[in-house]
Write a structure and sequence with these properties.
Blueprint: E1 3-4, E2 18-24, E3 30-33, E4 38-39, E5 63-70, H1 74-93, H2 95-98, H3 107-115, H4 118-187, H5 193-231, H6 239-251, H7 254-258, H8 273-276, H9 281-284, E6 297-300, E7 317-320, H10 342-385, H11 388-394
Parallel strand pairs: 6-7
Antiparallel strand pairs: 1-4, 2-3, 2-5, 5-6
GO cellular component, one term: mitochondrion
GO molecular function: DNA strand exchange activity; single-stranded DNA binding; structural constituent of ribosome
Region (Disordered): 248-271
């Protein structure tokens, strides 16, 4: 069999958020997967280091899951997966430095030793998590520095835009429009090519300046419109509100744009997409979320396997998978409990029998109470109307 997966296993989890680790019970080789299953393509992870070092096919009775690592973000999981692959490549290629005693063994024993990667992979996972804990600090620092740089850039850039908008409000737009019209009229009266070229260049420069002033007015108008949406209690503006602000700015007349206040909204609000649209590429490119080890969970088929690592980060949570079938359980799904011992089974059975007997007693008591109630109702009726048999005897 070349495929040991459930139906559509890739749809069960998000790519990169989980790493499923498998081991071969005969050779202790290790495979990594992003979904709770294995395919024949996963065998490409195993290098050829000798005869029968790479299985020809996947056998479900040989490959068993032993650990599932769950990460808070797919990016953190993908980085961990890459590091695990790199560390294993070092184990397989730099063994003469890390394990010099293998040089004294026979070729067959050396191949077998290099194929045993289960303990190494667990130690590698602990080291990867330790490195991610160190990276979390400077990743958070980079985000803080990026925020400071972005705010400084926006303050400077929006000051220039507001200055242009103020010039557009003071009548420069009207002056430019009149000047452009005058130059276009004079263009028909020019006779030489040199004069026409000079006038055409002047018209082009005035048009560029006019468009720049109109753009500045529209940007300020859109920024203010979206700031009102954020001030109403919306934490992040929706795409609808952004499109509405852009359409309003496009349809607004020049007189309306010229009445827009340039100091109404903050210049460096990073939650306003209109404000941040002026950021250059090196500041607008998103930074990854800092790694978080407190949200990392390791689920073990055998919890004692974790002792292969010298130490684990304190924030990492260790758990057990529960009862395993062919594939590991999907993280955060309902667990299958381990089979109970004989003493537990007897105790559970005794508890169920006691509960059943108590229910029968309660049901019998309830029937007796109902019977007493029925008899009591009949006696009350007899007292009210008297004994009908006694009345018949008197007649």
């Amino acid at each position: 069999m070349t495929r040991i997966v459930e139906k559509n296993p890739r749809k069960l989890v998000k790519h990169g958020k989980h790493i499923f680790m498998w081991w071969n019970i005969n050779t202790q080789q290790v495979l990594y997967s992003f979904f709770p299953g294995l395919e024949k393509s996963h065998l490409k992870q195993l290098p050829f280091i000798g005869k029968k070092s790479v299985p020809a096919s996947l056998r479900p009775d040989f490959w068993k899951p032993f650990c599932t690592a769950t990460f808070p973000t797919p990016y953190q999981g993908l980085i961990a997966y890459r590091k695990l692959r790199e560390f294993r490549r070092l184990h397989e290629t730099a063994w003469d430095e890390t394990q010099p005693e293998l040089l004294e063994q026979s070729k067959k024993s050396r191949i077998r030793a290099l194929m045993r990667q289960k303990a190494n992979s667990i130690a590698d996972l602990a080291e990867v998590l330790r490195l991610q804990g160190e990276q979390a600090g400077w990743m958070a620092k980079n985000r803080e520095e990026r925020e400071v740089q972005s705010r400084e850039w926006l303050e400077k850039k929006w000051a220039e835009v507001e200055e242009l908008a103020e010039k557009g409000k003071t009548g420069e737009i009207n002056k430019l429009q009149l000047e452009i019209k005058r130059l276009e009229d004079s263009l028909t009266r020019k006779t030489t090519e040199k004069e026409k070229e000079r006038v055409t260049k002047a018209v082009r420069l005035h048009n560029h300046r006019l468009k720049k002033l109109q753009w500045a007015l529209k940007m300020v108008y859109k920024r203010n419109a979206l700031e009102k949406t954020l001030a109403s209690g919306t934490t992040t503006p929706t795409e609808t509100s952004i499109v509405a602000a852009e359409k309003a700015a496009e349809n607004a007349s020049t007189e309306t744009l010229q009445t827009t206040s340039t100091s109404e909204s903050p210049r460096s609000n990073l939650k306003n997409p209109i404000t941040t649209s002026l950021l250059p590429r090196h500041l607008s490119a998103p930074l990854p979320v800092p790694f978080d080890l407190s949200s990392v969970t390791l689920e073990w088929a055998d919890l004692y396997d974790a002792e292969y690592a010298k130490a684990w980060p304190e924030a990492v949570v260790h758990d057990v998978m529960g009862t395993l079938r062919r594939n590991p359980p999907v993280p955060n799904a309902e667990r299958i409990a381990f089979p109970a011992y004989e003493e537990e089974v007897l105790a559970i059975k005794a508890t169920e029998e006691e509960k059943l007997a108590r229910e029968k007693e309660e049901e019998a008591e309830k029937k007796v109470e109902e019977e007493k109630g029925r008899v009591g109702r009949v006696m009350e009726k007899v007292k009210k109307i008297g004994n009908p048999f006694k009345l018949r005897a008197l007649h």
